[in-house]
Amino acid sequence: MNKVKYYIFIVIICFAGFSLKAQPQNKFVVFQDSLIKISKAVLAADSDVRKLEANGRFVKTLVEALKIQNSFDFNFDSLKNISIIKSPDKIFRILSWYVQQENGTYRYYGAIQMNTNSAPLKLFPLIDQTENISDPNAITNNQKWYGARYYEIVPVTSGNRLPYYVLLGWKGNTQTTTKKVIEILSINKDALTFGAPVFDGKELTDKNRIIFEYVKSNAMTLKTDQKAGLIVFDHLAPFDSQMIGKYEYYGSDGTFDGFKIIGGKLKFQQNLELNNDANATDELYADPKKNLKPVRKF
Prior knowledge:
Blueprint: H1 3-44, H2 48-66, E1 83-86, E2 92-100, E3 106-114, E4 123-127, E5 149-156, E6 164-172, E7 177-188, E8 191-194, E9 199-200, E10 210-215, E11 222-225, E12 230-238, E13 250-262, E14 265-272
Parallel strand pairs: 9-14
Antiparallel strand pairs: 1-2, 2-3, 3-4, 5-6, 6-7, 7-8, 7-10, 11-12, 12-13, 13-14
Helix pairs in contact: 1-2
């Protein structure tokens, strides 16, 4: 084989390899474009029925996209209505979003995709059962999910025990209040468990998850600080002492609390000092990593 033919041969081989890699990538882009169009249809729908119909198409299209080999590595960056976050250990990722209904409430949708590399898709659907969960502190599974739009994952390991994951989520609630959630996720083979008694502090012994509720016009910080090993959040209190228990009158009182990961537990920390004010945009999702950093030394 002369040099000219040799170089042509190399170019053809390289181009063929590039084409094989580009083909599935192009498929993802096509699916992403379709998902963007459907998500706009969900927002534009003039009734709950039509919103749910469009969202059903969105779910079906998303699952088809995830069935493509190596879908775990495609981030769907242009799809803004859905939160997609990977666990730091790359074991799974969570896809979560919501549909706001005509009465001002929210319905949540999601799935957990396991990282199977080139193996077939392994997907756990998350079925929002908020309305049917009589005890918000109950330990549940993916079929009975206390829905939220998650934006951060913190793995917690201790000794030889399986890790669990702390999930931080936004949970629009009603026309008057908003919620945020500290959820606990455990994964054991083919079973998902939400909620666990890992909180350590006064009046927290039996808590399986932490739910914050406050007036919708208020902003609340709930984020992690990796350097300090903390989950930090606003301390919520009623604007008037006579309004205790009426969460439409709760808001940030200017102080901050948190949880520090110690020995596989979330140890409550009170009165943390932070160097910024809370983010003022709470209704729309904002990246919590851009918010506050504790200045207290531990």
